[in-house]
């Protein structure tokens, strides 16, 4: 990984991005020597092997070891790798992202600096209606006229709020107060550093279709920037975490019964719906469909 510069992926619009700015391990084995992974995975197997005082090792062991660690939830070796990003995102995305506590960040100070007039205005195609099935979600379709009026309102109100903001900072209102009038679609930036274990947790939650579409785009970019650096880890993570299905005892029995549709096995309606969703996922996997990205 030595010699690699900043790698940036644009997200949402001309203001949003995720840039990978640093990665640990920086010192990695020579490619192919001894069959180990030449990339970031090497830090994970290096740490895991200390418990066996080096242990025996044959070509191909690294991938097998990483799969074993992931399969059995031995996650501390994945904390030996770290990644650091420079991110530009709307404040409402930052508020969701910052809930992931096992990370370190430094954010631009709107007390210290004036915020530029960078606002996220969703494209028409991603403006959906309130979801009927999920109180936290949105559906695909929304009347084009309503979507258009919503965009215009966001554009004009954001521009007006920023114009007023600059009037008041010009009148010497402290920046820490003037910012109170800015909406949550204004852009902020931070440097975010996190170990790989917790990045995987972040990705599992935020690439999932239950997460808001906007933060999903950021999570996808984080994934795309680092997955090639930790190929064995991401392969195992997809296999044993995100694309696995966790079944209760009753659900295993129902699947094994050979029923053609998911039987009612849960009294709780929500759990029953989740079971029906799992049933669908099992069928989709069986037919080769469905990937991580919704
Ligand atoms: C789809 C979705 C909807 C959400 N809706 C809401 C909502 O309506 N309201 C809301 O407030 N939040 C909401 N959240 C945020 C959510 O509740 C979590 O705060 C967020 O996803 C961070 O995940 P986490 O707590 O598992 O772990 P992180 O903070 O990412 O930490 C990683 C892991 O470290 C460990 N850890 C971290 N801190 C501690 C600790 N203090 N003690 C013990 N273990 C710890 C845990 O194992 C944890 O899983 C939502 C998240 C998602 C993905």
What would you say this structure looks like, in words?
The protein is of the alpha+beta class and 294 residues long. Helices cover 41% and strands 12% of the residues. The protein has 10 helices and 5 strands. The protein has helices at 41-49, 61-71, 91-97, 144-170, 175-178, 196-206, 213-226, 231-242, 249-256, 269-286; strands at 7-10, 17-24, 82-90, 103-107, 187-195. It has a 5-stranded antiparallel beta sheet. The longest helix is centred in the middle third of the chain and has 27 residues, at 144-170. It is flat, with a radius of gyration of 23 Å. The two termini are 31 Å apart. The model has no long low-confidence stretch (mean pLDDT 88). It binds flavin-adenine dinucleotide (FAD). Flavin-adenine dinucleotide (FAD) binds at residues 99-102, 136, 198, 201-202, 205, 210-211. Flavin-adenine dinucleotide binds at residues 99-102, 136, 198, 201-202, 205, 210-211.
């Amino acid at each position: 990984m030595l010699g690699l510069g900043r790698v940036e992926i644009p997200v949402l619009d001309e203001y949003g991005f995720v840039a990978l700015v640093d990665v640990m391990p920086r010192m990695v084995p020579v490619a192919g020597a001894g069959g180990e992974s030449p990339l970031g995975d090497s830090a994970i197997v290096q740490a895991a092997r200390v418990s066996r005082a080096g242990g025996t090792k044959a070509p191909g062991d690294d991938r097998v070891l990483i799969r074993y660690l992931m399969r059995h939830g031995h996650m501390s070796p994945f904390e030996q790798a770290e990644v650091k990003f420079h991110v530009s995102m709307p404040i409402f995305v930052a508020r969701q992202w910052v809930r992931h506590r096992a990370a370190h960040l430094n954010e631009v100070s709107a007390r210290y600096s004036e915020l530029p007039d960078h606002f996220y205005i969703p494209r028409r195609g991603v403006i959906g209606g309130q979801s009927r099935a999920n109180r936290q979600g949105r559906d695909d379709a929304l009347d084009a006229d309503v979507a258009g009026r919503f965009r215009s309102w966001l554009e004009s109100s954001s521009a007006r709020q920023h114009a007023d903001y600059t009037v008041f900072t010009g009148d010497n209102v402290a920046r820490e107060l003037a910012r109170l009038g800015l909406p949550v679609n204004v852009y902020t930036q931070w440097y975010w550093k996190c170990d790989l274990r917790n990045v995987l947790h972040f990705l599992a939650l935020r690439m999932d279709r239950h997460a808001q579409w906007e933060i999903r785009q950021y999570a996808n970019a984080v994934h795309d920037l680092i997955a090639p650096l930790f190929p064995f880890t991401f392969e195992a993570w997809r296999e044993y975490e995100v694309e696995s299905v966790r079944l209760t005892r009753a659900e295993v029995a129902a699947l094994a019964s050979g029923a053609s549709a998911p039987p009612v096995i849960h009294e709780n309606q929500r759990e029953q719906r989740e079971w029906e969703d799992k049933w669908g996922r099992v069928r989709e996997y069986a037919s080769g469909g469905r990937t991580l990205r919704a």
